[in-house]
Amino acid sequence: MGNSIFGRLEEVKASMSKRNKKFWKIKISGVPDMLFVWDWDVIANAKIGQEVEVITEKSDDGKFVHVTECLPVLNVDGEPSELPTPIHEYTAPDSDKETEMARMSALKTAAAFLNGKPDTTQEEIIAAALRFLEFIKTGD
Fold first, then answer.
1. Are 111 and 124 in contact (CB under 8 A)?
2. Which of 35, 42, 44, 63 has the fewest CB within 10 Å, making it most exposed?
3. Share of residues in the chain with pLDDT > 90 (%)
4. Are residues 65 and 133 in the same domain?
């Protein structure tokens, strides 16, 4: 049996594993680290701001804490605590680190792409980097 953690669901952020498997990182108040959810059904009915009990287990290698259950904490009337924002309506802002990594990647790609073109200006590299960054963000 796993450990129980009680707290407010503060953040849910979708991610992709190195093996291209989608997972979610969740932040629970009072817990310093993000927790990992590999099955959307575990958190599908949870809402940002809701008091929850999460049941966790450590990964086989002991490096990560995985959420196996996410249950709403009920008030005295048997109703779930505050339900301000459903997860599916919530969009977590990009972290500064991810934004900076995307910018650096786009700039490096643009510089490499234009490397063989003689007389390339800084403005041309930046314009190409902005196009690559737009592609990273939208896929178009």
1. no
2. 63
3. 2
4. no
Contact between 57 and 37 under an 8 Å Cβ cutoff? The reply is no
Burial of 37 from C-beta contacts in 10 A (0-12 / 13-18 / 19+): buried
Place of tokens 């059904």: 41
Tokens of 137: 């963000």
Tokens of 46: 């949870």
Tokens at residue 63, please? 């490096």
Contact 43, 11 (CB under 8 A): no
Query: Which residues does 86 contact at the CB level (< 8 Å), separation at least 6?
Result: 47, 48
What whole-number distance in Å separates Cα of residue 1 and Cα of residue 55? 9
This prediction's pTM: 0.52
d(CA 92, CA 20): 20
Separation of alpha carbons 55 and 68, rounded Å? 6
